[in-house]
């Protein structure tokens, strides 16, 4: 159960907006933490479903985010509301769609102290269900691994910074020194922006994939489409170029495979073998990249079909941001929410 000490070592802050499908699992996993003094603060961000009622059934501190200030993203406002109330030496921001092992808080705290990190963030184990999720999610996370290599994120000499808001542990003094969520109030990718500010200020970062928590980010195709439309163009520096590359990769694999079938049907065995070998080489290169995303074998296999979907979503995200209109959970964010 959560610790009732007035001065816990870690204050866990869970921003929640319309999370009735998953918040019970998240809180159930958090109240069973071991090896650390902590408290749990759930910030209800204007939920219109049963999120608040469900959270009230758990031994947590439940507060309201209040009215959304002009120029703020909803998550930043909710996270900052929780942070202002939190007495912990460390703050752990975690999303309502995460499920934690019994040692997730203690493990993160120990690792942060071991490596002298003022900000530690874990990328959780991802669960995907259904064809579209299984095809798309490995492609997205493989690209993230290429764009934000954990080794460089952790290197103080590298300008690359990243964090995942599903598990973001930050020392309270560092959080206050960089301005907390108030300093990135406009940001849709508030986790990455906080990491950038922390690294620029000279604080140590620690970032990696971890199995101390897991998540299923999206529970329907429309939700996945809206979520990645909100995020993708901000995550990658040249979204249209990347979209073109991934679409060309899919066309090359599919084209070589189709050509091999046609040649074999026409009795051109040598040509068919060459075309099949090229298709196999291209697919093997794709799989080598995809396996870095740590998904299950079936999802890795289906990732070839995620390439054109990724390209389409990335292009749609870029267009939406350039038009200054992206939406998430019933709220619209304009150009002010995009980091220059």
Strand content: 15-25%
Largest sheet: 8 strands, mixed
Low-confidence stretches: 1-5, 336-340
> Please, what is the average pLDDT?
94
CATH class category name of the largest domain? Alpha Beta
**CA-CA gap between termini:** 43 Å
Radius of gyration (CA) equals 22 Å
CATH architecture of the largest domain: Alpha-Beta Complex
Number of domains: 2
Helix-strand makeup class? alpha/beta
Count of helical stretches:
12
Write out the CATH superfamily name of the largest domain.
Answer: Spore Coat Polysaccharide Biosynthesis Protein SpsA, Chain A
Number of strands: 10
CATH topology heading of the largest domain: Spore Coat Polysaccharide Biosynthesis Protein SpsA, Chain A
Give, in spatial order, the strands making up the sheet with the most strands: 3-2-1-4-7-6-8-5
Helix content: 40-55%
> What series of H and E elements makes up the topology?
EHEHEHEEHEHHEHHEHHHHEE
Shape: elongated
Which helices and strands occur, and which strands form pairs?
Blueprint: E1 10-16, H1 23-30, E2 38-44, H2 51-55, E3 61-64, H3 74-85, E4 90-93, E5 98-100, H4 104-114, E6 119-126, H5 130-147, H6 150-153, E7 168-171, H7 172-177, H8 190-200, E8 205-215, H9 221-235, H10 239-265, H11 269-290, H12 297-322, E9 326-328, E10 331-333
Helix pairs in contact: 5-12, 9-12, 10-11, 10-12, 11-12
